[in-house]
Amino acid sequence: MLLNKYIKYTFLATTITTLLTACAGSDGSNNNSTTPFASKSISGTAVDFYLANATVKFDDCNGLTTTTDAQGKFSFKTTADCNNSAITITGGTDIGTGLPFTGTLKIKKTDLQNISNNDFVASPLTSLEYYLGSGDLQVVLNNLGLTTVTAANIKSYNPVTDGSAKEMAVIFTLQQLATQIEDNFQAINKSDGSVALTQEQATQIAFSTIGNTLKTQGKNLFNSNGELQATALTEILDNAVIAAQTAIKDDTRPVDSNIKGNINTNITTVSTEINKIVQSGGNGESLQTALQLPANQTTLNTIKESLKTPIYADFTLAGYSLATLKTSSAAAPLALSYANLDTALAVNFKLNNTKSELTDTIKLGFKINGSRGALKENLDVIISNIQVSFKTDGTILSAKVPVNTAINISTSLQGVSKLQFTTQKEIPINVSNGIIPLSSIVSNSDALKTYYTEYMKKLAVNDLVEASAYVLPITYTVDPALELQNGTITIDSTQFQGSTLTAHFKLN
Question: Staple partner for 505: which of 182, 368, 440, 465, CB 3.0–4.6 Å?
Answer without folding.
Answer: 465
